[in-house]
Amino acid sequence: MRTQKLSVSHIKRMFICLFILGCTSLLQAKEHVCEKTITISAANDWPPYSYKENSVFKGLDIEIIELLLQDVNICWNYVTLPSSSRAFSEFKKDHVDLIFAASYTSNRRGFAEFSVAYRTEIMQLFSHISQQPLQKSPEGRLPLALNNAIVAINRGSVYGPAFSHFQAQCTDCVIELSESIDRFELIKHKRVNFAVEDLLSGAYLIKNNTQLSHSVRATHITVHSNPVHYMLRPGMFSEKKLREFNLAIINNKSRIETLTNQYKARLTTKKYLNN
Fold it and tell me: How far apart are CA 204 and CA 39, in angstroms?
């Protein structure tokens, strides 16, 4: 009987030791995964890149950044701000650590670090469905049809040198509006001739809005094709960690391209294109 009691006692001690070791391993694993936690500015209404569904952030840029941060053992929190200008303001105050889909400019480089590019942003020309097909122009030039046309754009976006020249030559030809839906509404009612939108954002709006799907289309004219980066708060990453993060982008290039092509295939069918 004594031997049996000792065996039960040993078994109990073994279970206790295993439980403690298991908890310790889980805590160490969690600490390893969450080397640090960063704050990411994420829009809750910018499909298909970043949006909320049942209180969960989803979208192409959400999938990409989560893939990369998991690779470098960084955890994250999302914060939603009312506008990109507010996001930049909070970024400068060190309240935001990372902004995705950022175009590199010398001005922004003055207050931010940039990752290597992780995808390409395509700014496409959209028109009313009744618009006659546009003739392509030589590379680096916009179609002649834009001469004296009214074009709606997003305030603060980067559209490249050709469009900057067009805007400088005809300041009254460009209308700046913050919301894509407002720009497309102007096309629908023929109050502007064109709008310049991110190709996937525009295609998503058209696909998911019955009225727009019968009045607005993407043309085959690409206004600007631009590599986008992550804007990183200076000092957020050590030099070593920044190299790891950039290497994660490079190593996951094929996975990022696959994700991007999946979204593009779902949205840019002939039904939503003019030509």
Answer: 27
pLDDT in tens, 175-193: 999 889 999 999 999 999 9
Q: Spell out the domains of the chain, with CATH numbers in brackets.
A: 33-119+227-266 (3.40.190.10), 122-226+267-272 (3.40.190.10)
pLDDT digits (tens, 9 = 90+) for 34-90: 899 999 999 999 999 999 999 999 999 999 999 999 999 999 999 999 888 899 999
**128 close to 215: Cβ distance less than 8 angstroms:** yes
pLDDT-derived band at 275 (thresholds 50, 70, 90) equals very low
**223 φ/ψ angles, rounded to the nearest 5 degrees:** -75, -40
Q: If pLDDT is split at 50, 70 and 90, which confidence band does 3 have? A: very low
Q: Say if residue 90 is exposed, middle or buried (CB neighbours under 10 Å; 0-12, 13-18, 19+).
A: middle
Q: Residue 19 corresponds to which tokens in the numbers above?
A: 């439980």
Amino acid letter, 101: A
For the segment 111-126, the average pLDDT, to the nearest whole number, is 96
Residue 154's contacts (CB-CB under 8 Å, 6 or more residues apart) are: 176, 177, 178, 180, 183, 196, 197
Q: What is d(CA 176, CA 160) in angstroms, rounded to the nearest whole number?
A: 16
